[in-house]
Amino acid sequence: MNNSNSKDVNFLFSKNRWGLFYNPFYFTRKELYKGIARHASSSQGDMIDLGCGTKPYKHEFKNVSKYIGLDIEHSGNWDTKEMIDVFYDGKTFPFKDQSIDGVFSSETFEHIFNLEEIIAEINRVLKKGGHLLITCPFFWPEHEVPYDYARYTSFGIKHLLEKHGFVIVEQQKTGNYITAMLQMQALYHYYFINKIPVISGLFFVLFISPLFFLGSLFNKILPNRMKRNDLYLNNVIFAKKA
């Protein structure tokens, strides 16, 4: 795939602060990007991007020698914009035991029906001490239907990883009550009201951008007790194989 197509597909994953004027997923993508970038430099050697799609975060993994996009093909419907290097059957990765240095997976675990089986498979192909970096949503609408199967609390995903031989190095919740609720309000406007192409850009700036601006402001000035993080957007977990 050429680079221009890749950029067209991935602009919504950008960390650009001006995204509040055009990105309807601004809070979600901004925090995910920060969480992934913080740990990406720890990945080296051969790495799998599980559920890679268009590989929107590939450029953050600068120390990786081989970046392998791994995904499952749903009923032969492979989006031509995706950058998958290897397909698997939904159960077994086509890699040898302890042959991979790291695994990265962003917003994919909720689409895996047999998640425990896949976590065990990740453990199998990782070398001892290999890294696993994952993100998965907690508060988000159903998407990529009908292949949307679960939402995981911070406690649930931690339990599953530890059960299958991983040690949690760092676990983060992105967002809080403020950003989560305003992100959902922005999505409502974007999905159900922002439908007229001629005025869509103006509508975004007038009705959606202010939500992101206010959320950013409230995050800075309000005390933690008023923000709370038991309602949040995403889990970001950095773990290693024991």
Quick overview:
This protein has 242 residues and is of the alpha/beta class.
Report helical residue fraction.
Answer: 25-40%
CATH architecture field of the largest domain:
3-Layer(aba) Sandwich
Uncertain residue segments: 1-9
Q: What structural class should be given to the helix and strand makeup?
A: alpha/beta
Task: Tell how many strands the DSSP assignment holds.
Answer: 7
Strand order of the largest sheet: 3-2-1-4-5-7-6
Count the helices. How many? 7
Determine the CATH topology of the largest domain.
Rossmann fold
Describe the secondary-structure layout.
Layout: H1 3-10, H2 26-40, E1 45-50, E2 64-72, E3 86-88, E4 100-106, H3 115-125, E5 126-137, H4 154-163, E6 166-174, H5 177-193, H6 200-221, H7 224-227, E7 234-241
Parallel strand pairs: 1-2, 1-4, 2-3, 4-5
Antiparallel strand pairs: 5-7, 6-7
Helix pairs in contact: 5-6
